Amino acid sequence: MTPAHGRTTAESLGVLVKQTQTVLHQRMDDALRPLGLRVPQYACLQALADTGGTTSAELARSAFVSRQSMNVLLQGLERRGLVERSTDPGPRRERATVLTPAGQDVVGRARAAVAGVADAMVAPLDADDADRLHALLVACRDALLEPDGAGSGD
């Protein structure tokens, strides 16, 4: 692969991953708009559906937002009747959040909308290519999670 604009292959791949993430985020927002959701709200609802009751700090990590942003996001979802927060604080003074039946319905419809976007993204790939891409992206992510993941340049 020939690097573009004087970038190394690794730099070009990093830019391409970011470009792909940006377009994916935009398409997911478009698909979620009819449900009155944006990607962070969907990520929060999906995390609650996957894990059950959890704290706002844990949800913030799952949705890639700050704890403060998650608190505002949860207030909006609570006003819409999609989540309920416990009135009793937990061990670290945080209140657990759970999906309401309405929230369960919305997250089911949102998952279907997001699945359509994901399917469109991988449509040009055959199953083997999609599996290989998945494995390669996992390897890249995991390399960055290593303590020296910033790269040594070697």
Q: How does the major sheet shape up?
A: 2 strands, antiparallel
**Beta-strand level of the residues, as a percent range?**
under 5%
Report the principal-axis shape: globular
Strand order of the largest sheet: 1-2
Radius of gyration: 19 Å
Q: Classify the fold: give the CATH topology.
A: Arc Repressor Mutant, subunit A
> Could you say how many structural domains there are in total?
1
Gap between N and C termini:
19 Å
Query: Could you report the average pLDDT, rounded to the nearest whole number?
Result: 88
In DSSP terms (H or I, runs of 4 or more residues), the helix count works out at 6
Helix-strand string: HHHHEEHH
Fraction of residues in helix: 55-70%
- Proper CATH architecture: Orthogonal Bundle
Q: Total strand count, please?
A: 2
Structural class: mainly alpha
Low-pLDDT windows of residues: none
Instruction: Specify the CATH class.
Output: Mainly Alpha
CATH H-tier superfamily: Winged helix-like DNA-binding domain superfamily/Winged helix DNA-binding domain
